[in-house]
Predict the structure.
Amino acid sequence: MKPSMQMLCRLLDQVTIRGLWLGAVFCLSSWSALAAAPATPAAALQKAVVNWVVETQSVEAESVVLAPLDPRLQVKACSSPLAMDLPFASPDTIRVRCAQPAWQLYVRVSVPVRVAATAGPAKVEPAPVEKRQVLVAAVPLQRGMSLTAAHVRLVDVDTSSMPVNVLEHVSQVLHAEVVRDVRPDTPLRSQDIRPTVLVKRGQMVLMSIGQAQGFQISARVEAQQDGRYGEQIKLKNRDSGRLLTGLVKGPNQVQGL
């Protein structure tokens, strides 16, 4: 009886060991099958998109964020490599196309803005300088000096630094005098000059009448007050004693009104 029991125990041990071995083999086979199982078409598509963004935009894969695909979307496995491009101006939308079977879809991505390592601060191009011609003193101008065209000249200056009320025409200084000292090359302003006294009280001046009508009559009259260029002054005809009004047009010259 004892030998029989020993044989039975040995047989049970062999069966147990064989069962354990078969179980281990089955588990390993199942794990290998799961590990080797191909990814879903949607997962393969997302991985391909990330790889494409990394290659084309030179960013880290961890920084690429894909928008979730619509769960109702059925992505079919593609038998050929997926083709991708940017169909729009924005790099945030990638078009993915498959040749076989034919399909395409759009994937939204978000990537960080790349800044080149060698890039320095953005250079701001200066705005084009606007220039125009203005009058400047050609020689030192002293207070009370009567100006002529020889005292000034036209130069191009930057409008951003141009003073207010700057003069731009030589005619503006004719029959004018300086009211303050002006250094050479200084822009002249309207407040730097004033009309010169061209007619003085008590002087005999030449008054012209009728120029606008195509004829002209001249007469010598007496100025009753000082007058600067462009001012109206009172005049007197010594022969008749009549008072007249005239517009100062030049040295000792007036136009009758």
